Amino acid sequence: MYIVVDERQGVAAEYVAGFSEQGVASRGVGAGEFGAWLGAHAEGDVRDVDGFLLGECGERAAHTATIRRLTQAPIIALSETRSLAQTLDLFTAGIDDVVRRPVHVREILARAEAIRRRMNRAETRVAAPQQAERLVVHFDGRDPEVDGDSMMLPRRERHILEYLARNRGRWLTKSQIFAAVYGDLASDVEESVVEGHVSKLRKKLRMRLGRDPIDAKRMVGYSFVG
To answer: What is the structure's pLDDT at 160?
Structure first.
């Protein structure tokens, strides 16, 4: 899930809608509310955020420092003007990248993935070592591959696989997966849909791999074991 922060509600809504069009969960948070949001979610949701998009915000430098203490998720700033001084100030504050509006959400996603690669936090693919890289999970919108062949998945199942693979070895609850994949996109959808998506995903992976790379424990959650 991506967090969009801007003091202009229209701009925040524009990018939340853009993420939605790409099937990516996001949440708009007002600039004046963001500090409180960080404090309220410091022990939970922040570590599950895939990236932050910071637009016009008076405390952008201070918020960047707070974010970095909590997570290594990419932080991208939106700039309204071409200003070298402002860009340098943002980088000095700890922003990972600066883009000038208008910018398409697909470019933001690509830049965020490039930042993750540079930070060695997540590779563009995760392979199951015991399967000699039979299963390859991409994080740039492409379907996963099995034995070099693309494995077409519905958008939600692909996002769940990506989220599990990015957090390999870590147990993730149904609530965490739901928040990461749906965010604010479907307030009328119940968390129970995650169980159905994961069940279908595991069945497809077993059919292609001959084994299940996703472990599940009742009352605990799911874990990508490779």
So the answer is: 92
Pair of tokens at residue 128: 């199951």
Name residues whose C-beta falls within 8 Å of residue 84's C-beta, 6 or more positions apart in sequence. none
Report the pLDDT value the prediction gives residue 134, as an integer from 0 to 100: 86
Amino acid residing at 183: G
The Cβ-side half-sphere exposure at 113, using a 13 Å CA radius, reads: 16
Q: How far apart are the first and last CA of the chain?
A: 23
Q: Give the whole-angstrom CA distance, residue 32 versus residue 111.
A: 26
Q: How far apart are CA 74 and CA 68, in angstroms?
A: 9
Helix H segments across 22-104?
31-40, 60-70, 84-93
| Six-digit token string for 203 | 């069945």
Which region, left, alpha or beta, applies to residue 213 given φ > 0 means left and ψ of -120 to 50 means alpha? alpha
Q: What share of the chain is helix, strand, coil (3-state, %, to 5)?
A: 45, 20, 35
Instruction: Give the pLDDT of residue 200.
Output: 95
221 and 174 Cβ atoms separated by less than 8 Å = yes
CA distance 2 to 168: 20
Alpha-carbon gap, residue 109 to 69, rounded angstroms: 22
165: number of Cβ within 10 Å: 24
pLDDT digits (tens, 9 = 90+) for 69-94: 888 889 999 988 888 888 888 888 88
pLDDT value, residue 180:
80
Query: Residues in the chain with pLDDT < 50?
Result: 121-124, 129-131
- What backbone torsions phi and psi does residue 26 show, to the nearest 5 degrees? -155, 165
